[in-house]
């Protein structure tokens, strides 16, 4: 398993040959030739519908992709993850974010030990703490907390930040704020206007060593000490980390410490203690529905054959687009303003997991491509910004559209129908395109003179045949959000398995961190830049000059 075997080579070769067959018929003709196409290439799970019919695929493509998934050992690797095997091989760790959403009587083992009792013990402590903060029983120096500030970065920021915004209609706790950047402007802007006597800080860091988070935490501590007094620091802070000794050294008491474990990757940690800000905002019951949605997707992923498995289908379509058709990027386009941070969240989830080029088995370089460049913005905003390139640019960029059938407010009816029509219209336009004959026809219909028609028509041509998936759900509630995130987690797992890389480490972020440490004394003027390349030394010198020292 997990090294390129002859079945995989054959499966890739078959897909490669098949590509030229598929390419003969553009998607618009595939749709007119097959009224069953939507039915054939869509799949539902609970209130989620995944329509993948607007891809460059035909009846032969999916069986070939399922054969590839099987040859790559997706099923066995999936079983290994659920069995708690140390599939994160470079760090020798189990990968058990799935245990974070388990039921109390389920069993997930890491190193032979069932982790579920510990998971639920922490969840219960988080619930008691959240209830206390929400009711005012747990309070600051000036009474009930009105504001909660999560200080963290990467996986200790993007998940709770994204989910708090996504579920804002479910907020009935204190306001939540997020500070991540080491740029002092970030924390300064957040603290401005907050009442120190009623502000709770949550320090979120898996390692409790991340320089951005530690710097911001120290600034927050100083803010409290200065305004409220050293003796109140304990009441205004809590921490979530796997490094309990470091949290203690920071001065945090046991009851303000919410642990998680090294078998949870940072970008998979929103379900753990890292989600405390979300739990305080929406309450333990809402958080439990969020976990429940993910658990439902886990069960689906674990038990369904690849042919009826949403994450597998989404992952395999992604491999088709990336490896066989050679498309370099993936747009994440939620038609849901409250999912504005979802593209950034999926960017870390996907690019930090699958942005790799070395095989987990043997250390050789992967042949071909791995993870795509992930980007996105909520629709309809993106339409008025970068969709021009999606429709008429020289690169083909597959996109995932997502939209809820309902908005949570009745008065949005008019807005929501427009939102839905825009979402569906974009996928239709990307698929159909517009031919030169159609462009001419349209201009003629507008009464344009023939020379002008000829001049303008080429600019009005849309090549079409551009792939999209559409994920339609009923409404964005905690359960649905949990399902969507878990869907993408498992999709990324399927792709990482096929590419033979370790989706659960992130060595690629280390070099820059190490170099930043060596540059700091140079930026501060305490050390010479001798030995640095001319650009780096030149930039440091120029910045020092501009800073006046
Ligand atoms: O939670 P922390 O240990 O503070 O780490 C925060 C983030 O920083 C790192 O550089 C990693 O790239 C991320 O995966 C991680 O989520």
Automatic annotation (TrEMBL):
Keywords: Cytoplasm, Gluconeogenesis, Glycolysis, Isomerase. GO terms for molecular function: carbohydrate derivative binding; glucose-6-phosphate isomerase activity; monosaccharide binding. It catalyses: alpha-D-glucose 6-phosphate = beta-D-fructose 6-phosphate. Its main location: cytoplasm. InterPro entries: G6P_Isomerase (IPR001672), G6P_Isomerase_C (IPR023096), Phosphoglucose_isomerase_CS (IPR018189), SIS_dom_sf (IPR046348), SIS_PGI_1 (IPR035476), SIS_PGI_2 (IPR035482). One of its GO terms (cellular component) is cytosol. It is an enzyme of class 5 (isomerase). It comes from the Bacteria. It is found in: Cytoplasm. Signal peptide: none annotated. Pathway: Carbohydrate biosynthesis; gluconeogenesis; Carbohydrate degradation; glycolysis; D-glyceraldehyde 3-phosphate and glycerone phosphate from D-glucose: step 2/4. Its EC number is 5.3.1.9. GO terms for biological process: gluconeogenesis; glucose 6-phosphate metabolic process; glycolytic process. The active site is at residues 352, 384, 513. NCBIfam families: PRK00179.1. Catalyzes the reversible isomerization of glucose-6-phosphate to fructose-6-phosphate. Belongs to the GPI family. This is Glucose-6-phosphate isomerase. The lineage of its organism: Bacteria, Pseudomonadati, Pseudomonadota, Alphaproteobacteria, Hyphomicrobiales. The gene is pgi.
């Amino acid at each position: 398993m997990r090294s390129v075997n002859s079945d995989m080579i054959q499966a890739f070769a078959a897909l490669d040959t098949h590509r030229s067959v598929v390419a003969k018929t553009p998607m618009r003709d595939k749709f007119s030739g097959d009224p069953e196409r939507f039915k054939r290439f869509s799949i539902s799970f609970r209130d989620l519908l995944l329509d993948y019919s607007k891809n460059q695929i035909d009846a032969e493509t999916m069986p070939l992709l399922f054969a590839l998934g099987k040859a790559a050992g997706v099923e066995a690797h999936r079983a290994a993850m659920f069995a708690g095997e140390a599939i994160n091989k470079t760090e020798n760790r189990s990968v058990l974010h799935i245990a974070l959403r388990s039921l109390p009587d389920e069993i997930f083992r890491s190193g032979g030990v069932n982790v579920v009792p510990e998971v639920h013990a922490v969840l219960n402590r988080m619930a008691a703490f959240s209830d206390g903060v929400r009711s005012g029983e747990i309070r600051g120096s000036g009474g009930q907390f009105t504001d909660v500030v999560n200080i963290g970065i990467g996986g200790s920021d993007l998940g709770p930040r994204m989910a708090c915004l996504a579920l804002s209609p479910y907020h009935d706790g204190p306001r939540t704020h997020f500070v991540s950047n080491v740029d002092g402007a970030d924390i300064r802007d957040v603290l401005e206007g907050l009442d120190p006597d009623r502000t709770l800080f949550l320090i979120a860091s898996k390692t409790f060593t991340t320089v951005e988070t530690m710097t911001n935490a120290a600034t927050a501590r100083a803010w409290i000490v200065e305004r409220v007094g050293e003796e109140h620091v304990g009441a205004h802070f809590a921490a979530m980390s796997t490094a309990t000794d470091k949290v203690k050294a920071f001065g945090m008491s046991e009851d303000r410490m919410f642990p998680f474990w090294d078998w949870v990757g940072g970008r998979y940690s929103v379900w753990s203690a890292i989600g405390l800000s979300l739990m305080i905002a929406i309450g333990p019951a809402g958080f439990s529905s969020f976990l429940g949605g993910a658990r439902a997707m886990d069960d689906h992923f674990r038990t369904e054959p690849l042919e009826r498995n949403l994450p597998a289908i989404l992952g395999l379509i992604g491999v088709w687009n990336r490896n066989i058709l050679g498309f370099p990027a993936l747009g994440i386009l939620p038609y849901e303003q409250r999912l504005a941070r979802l593209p950034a969240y999926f960017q870390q989830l996907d690019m930090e997991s699958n942005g790799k080029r070395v095989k987990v088995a043997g250390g050789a370089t992967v042949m071909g491509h791995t993870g795509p460049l992930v980007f996105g913005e909520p629709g309809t905003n993106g339409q008025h910004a970068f969709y021009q390139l999606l429709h008429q640019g020289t690169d083909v960029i597959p996109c995932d559209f997502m939209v809820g059938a309902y908005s949570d407010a009745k008065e949005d009816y008019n807005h929501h129908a427009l939102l839905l029509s825009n979402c569906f219209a974009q996928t239709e336009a990307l698929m159909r395109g517009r031919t030169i004959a159609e462009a001419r026809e349209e201009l003629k219909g507008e009464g344009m003179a023939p020379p002008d028609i000829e001049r303008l028509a080429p600019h009005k041509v849309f090549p079409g045949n551009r792939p999209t998936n559409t994920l339609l759900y009923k409404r964005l509630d905690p359960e649905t959000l949990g399902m969507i995130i878990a869907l993408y987690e498992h999709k990324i797992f399927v792709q990482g398995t096929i590419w033979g890389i370790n989706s659960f480490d992130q060595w690629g972020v280390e070099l820059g961190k190490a170099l930043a440490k060596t540059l700091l004394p140079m930026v501060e003027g305490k050390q010479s830049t001798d030995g640095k390349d001319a650009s780096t030394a030149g930039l440091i010198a120029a910045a020092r000059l501009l800073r006046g020292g």
